[in-house]
Design goal:
This protein folds into 2 domains: about 10-80 and about 185-245, Gyrase A, domain 2 (2-Layer Sandwich), CATH 3.30.1360.170; about 125-180. Helices cover about 40% and strands about 20% of the residues. It is built from 8 helices and 8 strands, in the order ββααβαββααβαααββ. The protein has helices at about 35-45, 55-65, 85-95, 125-155, 160-170, 190-200, 205-225, 225-230; strands at about 5, 10-15, 75-85, 100-105, 115-120, 180-190, 230-235, 240-245. The two termini are about 45 Å apart.
Length: about 250
């Protein structure tokens, strides 16, 4: 039985910016395609492609965030593969709708006989609590296996084996705990990511989704620093990482 103690976040897609030959911007400073795309959209609104005040992309986007003109950030979409989070965590994540798309592992089709489980952050580091938790999820997984086997026998009259397995698994999954590990692909534009990270990286957020959000923030800051530079990761009083933002809900 595989146990996850922290999430695993991987960037799997980023913006590609194709600048029109007939309407070019006078770029200053280093920048990524996603950052340039946001700047390009902003400059188009005022036809300021000639960059009259000689701003670098980082300076331009800093002013965008300061002024709260977040709509131009919606053009830059980043896609993350998130693994090692629990099903309860993913249910919290998918509540963020505007600007996001989700594709999550299906328990109806995927055999969870060898499912992984995610230790709640509050349990980590306490040997007694971890041992009891491990015992509980192991028993739940064993119950799932028994249920699948029993249901496969009950549905022997179904000739299509794929459909039979699906019917068995969709019923047996009811005994699996919220701690069952989920893999999910999440696409979101930069504005949507910023709003979600502001909410979920804060000290008031549930610990597991906060841990996941901080991991996502780290990836996005490395990929597009000018879009997420005003987030600061720090260690909170509870000894867990959190993050605060300078410009709120741009």
């Amino acid at each position: 039985m595989e146990i996850f103690r922290e999430p695993r976040v991987t960037l799997i897609a980023r913006p590609e910016f194709l600048e029109p030959e007939h309407l070019k911007v006078r770029w200053l400073g280093e920048s990524t395609p996603g950052e340039r795309l946001a700047e390009y959209a902003g400059r188009l609104c005022y036809m300021s492609q000639h960059n009259p005040v000689n701003r670098t992309t980082a300076d331009y986007l800093e002013n965008i965030k300061k002024q709260g003109h977040g709509s131009v950030l919606e053009h830059s979409v980043y896609v993350l593969l998130i693994e090692g989070i629990s099903r309860s965590c993913s249910h919290e994540l998918v509540r963020h709708r505007a600007g996001f798309g989700y594709s999550q592992i299906s328990q109806r089709y995927v055999d969870e006989s060898h499912a992984a489980f995610v230790v709640p952050p509050a349990v980590l580091g306490d040997p007694k609590l971890e041992a009891e938790w491990t015992k509980q999820v192991a028993e739940a997984q064993a119950a799932y296996v028994r249920a699948v086997e029993g249901l496969m026998e009950r549905y022997t009259w179904i000739a299509d084996k794929v459909h039979r397995r699906k019917m068995a698994r969709e019923a047996a999954r009811s005994v699996l705990p919220n701690a069952t590990e989920v893999k999910i692909v999440v696409s979101g534009n930069a504005r949507a990511w910023r709003t979600t990270l502001e909410l979920r990286c804060g000290e008031g957020a549930e610990l597991e989704i906060r841990r996941m959000a901080v991991a996502c923030l780290g990836i996005l800051q490395r990929e597009a620093p000018a879009l997420f530079s005003d987030f600061e990761i720090y260690v909170a009083d509870d000894k867990q990482e959190a993050a605060r933002v300078t410009y709120h809900k741009v």
